[in-house]
Amino acid sequence: MIELVDVYKAFGPKQVLNGFSLRVERGETFVIIGRNGIGKTVTFKHIMGLMKPDRGKVLVEGVDITGLSNHELIAVRDKFGMVFQGCALLNWLTVAENVALPLRERTSLSKRQILDKVMEKLTLMGLQNAGHLFPAECSGGMKKRAAVARAIVRDPQIILYDEPTAGLDPIMASVVNDLIIELRQKLQITSMVVTHDMASAYRIADRIGMLSGGKLIEIGTPEQIRTSQNPIVRQFIEGRVADPAVAERPT
Prior knowledge:
Strand content: 15-25%
Distance between the termini: 29 Å
Strand order of the largest sheet: 6-7-8-3-9-10
Shape: globular
Largest sheet: 6 strands, mixed
Number of helices: 9
Oligomer: single chain
């Protein structure tokens, strides 16, 4: 479904992606872990065609998107839904209006059809009675579920999640994790998740990749990552203060 092949990306002297390669299968939930500022968001931007690599290929359903025109990229982005870390709900719109926004902007559906689609997704997220609320009236968990409803309202094939459990208490984080799993099971959506929350990563992932030095240094099942003997992986998942012997390799 998604493949990056030997991708390089630098910003001035800083090499962010340094031979990054990854293959995500259809219907899989792939989680990327790694320290702040290491290139996780840059990876997402390449997958959606918002950035072009200095070198390498980015394929979505077998099509290399690096050479596509802006018009062609719009069609590719229609395959995606995005759940932002801060939810990115518009404060002056109700929950229902936020969820409806992609349909109003990107489809020719009637008002009735839009309302039906919005209620379908709000119900799936357990928000069927919250459509009239404004974001300021919602809890953190409700905002996150509203953001997921907006991401799936156009029935995308792929969802990208940026820190989906950030800022949530453990109970609500579990609710969001269950939603991600439920979407995969019910809708067969391919998901990529960036997170620092290892409890979440172990729960939702089919596979986990550790990003370090501009590439994935280890990929495995949750259990394989949990028991990894790679010192950089162990330092991250255990949250240990940097040890010079296992400090991140310079790029």
